[in-house]
Amino acid sequence: MHIYTNPDPAQWAELLRRPQIEQAVIRPRVEAILDDVRAHGDWALIRYGRQLDGAELTDLLVSPREIDQAVTRVDPVLADAIRQAADNIERFHRAQAFAGLELEVLPGVVCRQRSVPIQTVGLYVPGGSAPLFSTVLMLAIPARIAGCREIVLCSPPDRRGNIADPILFAARLCGVTKIVKAGGAQAIGAMAYGTESVPKTDKIFGPGNQYVTVAKQLVSLSDVAIDMPAGPSEVMVLADDSADARFVAADLLSQAEHGPDSQAILATDSARLASRVEQEVERQLQHLSRSGLAAESIANSRIFVVKDRQEMISLANAYAAEHLIVSLHDPWEAADRITAAGSIFIGNFTPESAGDYASGTNHTLPTHGWAVSFSGVNLDSFMRKITYQEISRRGLEQLGEVIRTMALAEGLDAHAHAVRIRLEE
Amino acid sequence: MHIYTNPDPAQWAELLRRPQIEQAVIRPRVEAILDDVRAHGDWALIRYGRQLDGAELTDLLVSPREIDQAVTRVDPVLADAIRQAADNIERFHRAQAFAGLELEVLPGVVCRQRSVPIQTVGLYVPGGSAPLFSTVLMLAIPARIAGCREIVLCSPPDRRGNIADPILFAARLCGVTKIVKAGGAQAIGAMAYGTESVPKTDKIFGPGNQYVTVAKQLVSLSDVAIDMPAGPSEVMVLADDSADARFVAADLLSQAEHGPDSQAILATDSARLASRVEQEVERQLQHLSRSGLAAESIANSRIFVVKDRQEMISLANAYAAEHLIVSLHDPWEAADRITAAGSIFIGNFTPESAGDYASGTNHTLPTHGWAVSFSGVNLDSFMRKITYQEISRRGLEQLGEVIRTMALAEGLDAHAHAVRIRLEE
Fold first, then answer.
1. Taking Cα atoms as reference points, which of A279, A289, A329 lies closest to residue A309?
2. Does the ipTM surpass 0.85?
3. What is the pLDDT of residues A172-186, one digit of tens each?
4. Residues in chain B closer than 8 A to A353 (CB atoms)
């Protein structure tokens, strides 16, 4: 890890820069896949399943029977862990429910705001070496709580045409209504446009590789909403002498094992802690199953030794981390001054992995600095807030002159007329 | 207006189709402007001010003295109307404040969610024949309530290099911190990248012409968040025999005067009402100052006579109108079954113009069917919800096994290790 001691704040932007995301190269390929899915529907999905996943699919949808069988095969210890995590996630997301708002602004002028579920949502769950069933929990649980009517899940099949058992287990547990054997850009196209088997969705959620990311971005321009822009995962740890170097090192490594493009950054006001963390990272790295991957990623990671607590906080706000671990004495005092982060982990016994799986918060969070403007996925992400106004004749009499004056000043005569005609008689 | 009687539901999608938005033609031109602003900053803005607005600007920012003078020139009646509208908008948006959430999920596992303001926001206010000061209220008031630190407003100058007095009046009233004399794609570029005079913003809000719309879309891909995709304004009215044909006609016309690409749709179960509204539209059209514009737009508008109340509601949900007027007996029973709309106007005395200006709700709403997945602008639009978790040693002891089991099943060894090392001793 590279240690920067007292870097000039003028250089922070450069030192905190994320890896550039290069999408231009794959964009034409993604566009071709999307066009193909739009034109050929299921047939295109089956063809891509053969070409890209090596699977001969007869049916794109997972059958209830397949799910029944998958459920029985899941290790009971894992099943129990998933159920407990789901329970925590459910409770914290249910607590986010908006009760609605009603305000009589003036006598006879009542405004309301209510949350209404998005009707059809699409969830993408990546395939790859290990089944990311935790993502199913993070997306499907709030969708079900919100009251979405159709919850579609797409995930790439393996060579035998199956989706991993724990994903199917989690999907059933969380109320997914349709599971589709499709991955990559073609899955995003299917959920954006609809096919014979896949309903057109209103909003698409979830992480994925570069193809998925570019596809989500392209379809978001005119066809469907998406959760947020995506980038590689990242963590920043703020730590002082009250932190435990072993824990900090473990947190940096748990980010690093995601792969070489993920970032792990430590900001500290303690040179001693910095060097102990560096040693601990080297020591712990030896024992990890993914040590090759983590070593590559850790080589890109950075330690900043800054002059005081205030600089740590400024650095955190400048970076706007997806995950921010606050291992400082009086951590809440610092957390209260954080203006940009996806999710914040307070104190020495709150590893990022707690939020990744089971504390109850969502792990689908803004990366690449998007935390300055985006929230992580939460219950609101699956709803819209609709406003309502109800005005009585008396209310309009009070408000009418204001509306007419403003409308006429904006040159909108008919807007004024719509008030006048109601108050004429 | 074209009347469709009992259209086949299979044809609804076609009959409710919005005008296609053709952006490919202007996209290269917008890209060139954005590149220019990114490269040349203020200098490019001044050059475009000369070329496109015909203004020779010596300073891009409106000075406090200019605002002082503008404020004194605003007609006191208009000033008073703006203040009253601002007061209603302020009260309804202030009522939307999120108090924060704290939940102890398990003993020693505490999750929190809080709203944190976006630090720097950019508001776009179009120029054109009339100054749209109402948009200033709708964007700046919630930004100030949210606690945004920098509220930048861009609006095109007139040929003398000035922004209209009521816009400056509203901007000062609502706490805008910087007013920039720039419009079009160049203003969006300035707020996306920053220039010498214009701060880089985190999120850009507001309506605009096709150049502005395309520019917002392009910068949203990698540089800055935007409020929502934009399209022409639209209204749908649901009316039965309890409605007043004169009022319905006035509401359709107040939408139509926005221009030929805006849509006004009536769905009713009463053939009698349909024909009376048609006659009323013709009659009222004669008296409007913008009758030419409105006539052109009304020619594209449609009346659907459907068989019953349920079909009206289904049609409204299929269309997902920006503005939905419910002029039905028992209007709330119907409104409760609406799953997609930007803002809903209840009863015979609630014209759309009330919400456009002064009822307290926001008028920046999802168009073009985006109401299926987007909310209108509200207080949340200027904030992010950050989650926090704080786990005690005892809490981690309870949760640790769940996290480890799940992490190992996902092949993420270091995630499990970050828990294990904390519980080792």
1. A329
2. yes
3. 999 999 999 999 999
4. 403, 407, 412, 415-416, 418-419
